[in-house]
Amino acid sequence: MVPTDTVKEILKELIAIPSVSGKEKEILEYLEKKLVKLGFNLKRQEIEKNRYNLVYDNGSEFLISVHVDTVPPMDFKKAFEAQEKNGRIYGRGASDVKGAIASLITAIEWFKTDFPEEDLPVSLAFVVDEEQNSALGSERLPQFLEGKKKCLVLEPTYGLLCTKQYGAIEFSIKITCKSAHGAEFERVENPVKVFIKILKAIEGNLRRKVNVIMVKSGSKVYAVPKKCEALLEFKVFEGEKTEELIERLEDIVKSINTCCAVEINIEDVEEFQVFNTDGLLPLLKKVLERVSGEAKEGIMPSWTDASNYTKAGYHCVVFGYGSLLDSHTNRESISVEELEKFTKFFYEFFKELRSL
To answer: Are 95 and 323 in contact (CB under 8 A)?
Structure first.
């Protein structure tokens, strides 16, 4: 029987530990204390001062990797005070991905209770910096582990086994125009309107939605703003070449009829990725079918640490319960039912590995 009370309590304790990117030390110390008590010999891989990956490497070819950092609270009131309501637990990181960590630790305790003399048949990596573009934790982890791994990367995927990952092109736009008194707005171009024109042109030409991550312009002063700055991104689909998309993007911006100065900069580029899942996917499907009755594949919409691991030659699958849609918002939560499924999944995964 799944130890529900245990996984709920661990998740609430994890949520209560702020672990915004760059400040992961306290949560890593919490996890280290838990695992050492269970007899694990852990190592710290230093990433930066007071930042490190926490690693358990028993030589297994299988690895579970999970990031411990979260985005800031933003408008999430009481983000670090877990609230249980209507069968769900709310808090920053609940779905991305402290629910996964809580289920993993609970399943490890469960496995060690049932098989006290046996080693856990999988290596573990708790990595930092995933919520930043730098992703230093997963970038450097392969240097610390011996040999290539079959790696399960934990993220909220709605219970889908993600064998592919969308790429993305992130770019910034800066528009500078001639300002004017607010009452004479018809006589000059407004940089915000120029931005809207550019945005519509990009979406129409590339035939996809563009995510406006940030847009900044104007003030309460009664004047037409001089500048508009924005940070945007769009997805890269399977079979597309990012170089061609960037060239098209730049041509679209140049074609806009405006007297304003328009500057575009490419901030980050990620290719669409198809993961090598050999030796991992069939095993995960078998376990997931046992837990949920079915095992469906999907495409991860967001960048994950699997990108860095794939570049290092790892075989990867991204998987987890929880809603990616609600992650990073003030709705972030995970259901108790999902925590139970997650815990059982890990436990059955461990049992399957020990039988190999």
So the answer is: yes
